[in-house]
Amino acid sequence: MNIDKQPITSYRWETFSHMADIGIRGFGNSPEEALIAVSLALISVITDPQKVSPTSSVSITCQDDSYDLLLYDWLNSLIFKMATENMLFSAFEVELRLPFLRGMAWGETIDREKHKPAVEVKGATFTELFFGQNGNQWIAQCVVDV
Amino acid sequence: MEMSLLEKVSESCWQIPAHGTMRVPVIIYGSEKIIQQMDQKVAEQASNVASLPGIVKASYVMPDAHWGYGFPIGGVAAFDPDQDGVISAGGVGFDISCGVRTLLTGLQEKDIEPIKNKLADLLFKEIPAGVGSHGKIHLDKNEMDKMLVGGAKWAIEQGYGKEEDLQRIEEGGCMPGADPQAVSNLAKERQAKEMGTLGSGNHYAEVQVVGKIFDEAIAKLLSIHEGDIVVSIHCGSRGLGHQIGTDYLKEMVLCAQKLKIELPERELACAPIQSDLGKRYLGAMRAGINCALANRQILTHLIRKVFSYFFPNISMPLLYDVSHNTCKVEEHSINGGSKKLFVHRKGATRAFGPGHPEIPKDLKEAGQPVLIGGSMGTHSYILVGTTQSERLAFSSAVHGAGRAMSRSKALKEWKGKEIIKSLEAKGILIRAVSERGVAEEAPLAYKDVSDVVEAAHKAKLAKLIARLDPLICIKG
Fold first, then answer.
1. Active site residue B301
2. Which residues in B lie closer than 8 A to residue A80 (C-beta atoms)?
3. What φ, ψ does residue A14 adopt, rounded to 5°?
4. Residues of A in contact with B409 (CB under 8 A)
5. Which CATH number fits domain B3-81+96-404+446-475: 3.90.1860.10, 3.30.10.20, 3.90.79.10, 3.40.50.1100?
6. What are the average pLDDT values for consecutive 10-residue runs of chain A, which has 146 residues?
7. Which residues does the UniProt record annotate as the domain Archease (chain A) (predicted)?
8. ipTM over the 0.90 cut-off
9. Among candidates B73, B12, B102, which has minimal Cα distance to B369?
10. Is the CB of A20 less than 8 angstroms away from the CB of B403?
11. A6 phi and psi, to 5 degrees?
């Protein structure tokens, strides 16, 4: 698996309002692209992904029967890696073949001066959890607990 | 919230009668103004809770409630294990046993005024706070399991505090029934370097001055007087609790599907209390409570060390430690009898009235202290449980202001630097890792905590005793 060459700005993601927490959403022409986009949205809750240099990597493997649950597992795996490896990520590569999701996330050790991380993400939730198609567009989203 | 959906019971109490799949009514406490400010989702979520199996009496909403996931934050519900009652990971939340503790200092504002900046700087240096912060205590698997069973008691055995602290913590600082085997290795790994850390978001350590006493007699019992300096800590079970929430939320969603428990929302995922999954979650959740109690105890030790640098003979006894985001087994009055129930308090505080056996002897006459955290630049409050609270909401009260505005909206409204500056002009020193984090936690992004506390007091959920004003706030 190679590091994703697309610039961060080529992905389309957004955050959306939730009273206590925050929603993250990624769009793509494929499920993989939507997954990468929502991963960038996740990072954007903590810091600007453009501030994170993709210098080292972690690998993540998830297995589940549904797209929704794979998304839940993928985001929670990223959250776990960030917490335990003390990292932030800015580049991703994913390979999705139900029920398997294999991926890599590239980033660097959290540097509080450089990244000024705003808030910790505790976990992805089932609130607004959706990973599927709307017309030709793939959407991956959920509310994350912060 | 749309008031036309509600039936007025009294000036401080409203209800949504049981209808559709609801097994019990929803009871909402608060003034008309407070309830109007609540988002509509609170009514929807509380009604969903009312439809869960085994729920007893009502699904309660505290005056600080807002839209959560599954349960509203500020939601209270008790379940009867003998009536197929359930336990819900979403009803406890990710930040298991997040709570507040307050320490007395014996100091007055004039004592800290000359060293206020230095005190703020040293607290910020010594308390690991914010994303990516790690504590100095690293636990191996064996010690982790001991901590999960022992809670604050374990922390004190390691030298982080005094034996007498335990008297002032719910459950004597050690939640029985914790099962480290029910906690995943992932959760333990996530916690390994996070003991004694504050976290981020709305968590803080705050130096406060007692600004006003509302009940002199009870304040005296609590050893608080106008002008006293106190220190409050608001934080929880850190990565361990978050991972327990993640692990069990998914397992419960799948279990509910299998058992054909009808869930209006997936976040209401639950398991029968009597089931293997229910018992395992209880064991893990109780371990999470102990982790939070140990964490707050270690932070207490760090804060005492900082204060003793400036004031060598200071003792800083613990006033009290309360938890939110728990499910606890308690005896409650039902139909003239007494029954063991599993009480979920998500973003709500336990508030036992005077004389309750679980209140420390020397505070029995006062009632259980209820510590209400403010939001950085705003007041915090000390209340005590009332006798009426048992009947009103299984002895529960509010836990804080509750958000009034989303983080994204707060970011559009304010800049962290400006907030820090304006609070400094009012004599409140903020030390924070992230200016953006400060903007997201802007005082005005929360409801007016004074309104919330007044509503709880008027509803008799808890009795107002003292107001605390912030002087120094350490934010993650």
1. no
2. 186, 190, 243
3. -155, 165
4. 17
5. 3.90.1860.10
6. 68 88 95 97 96 96 95 97 96 95 97 92 94 96 94
7. 13-146
8. yes
9. B102
10. yes
11. -70, 140
